[in-house]
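Attaching the record inline, Q. Sequence:
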Amino acid sequence: MNEEVVLYRTRGGRLRAVQPHCPHLGAHLGHGGTVKGEHLICPFHRFAFATDGTCTATGYGTQPPRISLTALPLHEVNDIVFIGYEQDGSAPAWQIPDLSGPPQRPYCRPVHHTFTLAGHPQEVCENAVDSGHLAALHGFTVLQPPENDLVYHDTWFTYTMRVGRRVPLLGEVHLTPRIHVYGVSGIRADLPLPAGLGRLRMWVLPIATGPWHIEIRLPISAALPALRFLPPALRAPVGERLARLLARLYKPLLKWDIGSDVPIWNHKRYIDPPRLARGDGPIGTYRKWARQFLSAPSGTPNSSQGEERLHRSSRPDQERLLNDQDHP
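Structure, as predicted:
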């Protein structure tokens, strides 16, 4: 956690993630480093590193030393790159599945927003099944709660819900998002727009950066119907620009929605067991399922005790930590 990573793609399209410092003399490969063909070039002495991490050349034509970059496990899926590993440094025991389905009109390049706060990734993902807060905090009318359509798989679950929200000048608008929750790694919401105007795809990705420190990253993209009234050569570039405009227009609303949760996450305490009431949603079921993704505290043999980490961890200076940041 709280480590820098250098992520690069070669000319041939191969994506790699490595630890940031050159093993020769420690230059940071992310500050001045370049990609030349299939090699990552160090900015300090122009040492070249192949995609397997090995050093293949120096900047002055001599025999390269036997050094290698340290590669990190990565997984590129659903237009997002995930980098992570187990506590012992090994590759993750599971990966987010590719749920893109059959080819459809492509989503645009996403726009982003980031929140920084005190919290734990599980508490963010738990929000996906917390039906009660949708009305109490966000003002939605829950017409079909998650538990009516919830299907658990080994490392992810999905459901479709129906909600209503009053919109100025439009009155009550009904929305039917399809939700996917991947372990404690993130939430994806696919939202068809009314009248066939297109689709929005929103991610809520809580990234642990330290003990009880997280960044929540919000990529938002859109897809529009085929622009058949345009000449074929213009459809893709115009569609991309219009879709990104739609994503930018929706971004303040998603930022406002998630931003309503952020100060609560930043100051709340994990209660175990929770004192649940009718209408809360399947929070208890989600917590039992989520235990498989949590490591046990040091010295405990049973991984199911990993949930203890949520309420035994010390919390940082919350007022100092809370922050949000826009990205183009």
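Confidence is low (pLDDT under 50) at residues 298-309. The radius of gyration is 22 Å.

More tomorrow.
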